[in-house]
Amino acid sequence: MNACDEYAVKALRYLDGDLRGKELEEFRSHVDSCANCQAHLEAEAALSDVLHGSRPLYTAPLSLRTRVSAAINQHAVPGTAADGLYASVFRGMRERFPVALDAS
Length: 104
What we know:
The chain is mainly α. It contains six helices and no strands. The protein has two domains: 3-53; 62-102, no CATH class.
């Protein structure tokens, strides 16, 4: 695993606004000096824009949405990168399916 592999994962967290402090500074510094990571970040941003702009073909049943939100809450480990990821996913789900998630 090279140094850029770590930054590829952090690119997703960066796009979700999940990097803070020293971690954010180090990420920006690396991307500013690495053409490969710049290209990767641009590609992830473009994909993210497409995904955020698309709509699901079908709406999941309320029972499934409730189970998914419960699973996210159950598996989030406070203080870890995964916790931030789950928080981002949960935030997005809450915006799209407020009724289902408020019931959980």
